[in-house]
Amino acid sequence: MIRYYMMKPEQITLNYNGYNPAKLDTDMPLSELQEKYGLKGKYMLYIARIEHPGKNHLNLLKAYELLPEEIKAEYELVCGGGKWNNSEIVLDYHANMKDRERVHFPGFVSGDDIAALYQNAALYVFPSLYEGFGIPLLEAFASGIPVICSDRSSLPEIGAEAVRLFDPDDAQSIADAMQTVLNDPTLQLQMIFFGLRTLKGL
């Protein structure tokens, strides 16, 4: 707008996307969620269509494999989302993982299920290689869970100080970010606080 319409920066107001709070409202108890999805305890969450390579599930699975055994024993991984382009590459890799019993692909989730998955997650992981905005960031902030995400496209701008960034092309970088946040309860509280504050400023 500045280049082609000769507008001055002070004439432009950036209006960010929002999220639907009603989507995150549910009374589903944790026990029901665990029984429905075969969850044994704490878990990390990623909600995205299973699309390769764009949503970057493959590096997320590789990152999970790199975590210390004690973390994997405590935290499972839930990847909710319907099948999309090249999903078979991701699902085939999952089928051959040593840790496949700890990694869940429940398919498309909505309603009380998605709200309960957000509310009870220990950490939201957003490894996407490209996002025009990244509404799940806001949904995770609103659900009061810490977020780690890719350092690409819009995610660092939207997440700002509320997120911890990683290189989505490097599984070890993703694993390091997971481990840093999961091992630091004080950091988790700070990230949740900044996430809620970020929502108010959008």
Give a short summary of the structure.
The protein has 202 residues and is of the alpha/beta class. The chain is 44% helix and 14% strand. It has a single domain, classed as 3-Layer(aba) Sandwich (Rossmann fold).
Describe, in plain words, how this protein is organized in 3D.
- This protein is of the alpha/beta class.
- It has one domain: Rossmann fold, CATH 3.40.50.2000.
- It is 44% helix and 14% strand.
- A six-stranded parallel beta sheet has the order 3-2-1-4-5-6, with helices on both faces.
- α7 links the parallel β4 and β5.
- It starts with a helix and ends with a helix.
| Number of helical elements | 10
Measured distance between first and last alpha carbons: 21 Å
> Which structural class do the helices and strands define?
alpha/beta
Shape: globular
Proportion in helices: 40-55%
Number of strands: 6
Main β-sheet, in a few words? 6 strands, parallel
Q: What is CATH's topology name?
A: Rossmann fold
Name of the CATH homologous superfamily: Glycogen Phosphorylase B
Indicate the radius of gyration in whole angstroms.
17 Å
Question: Into how many domains do the coordinates divide?
Answer: 1
Beta-strand percent range: 5-15%
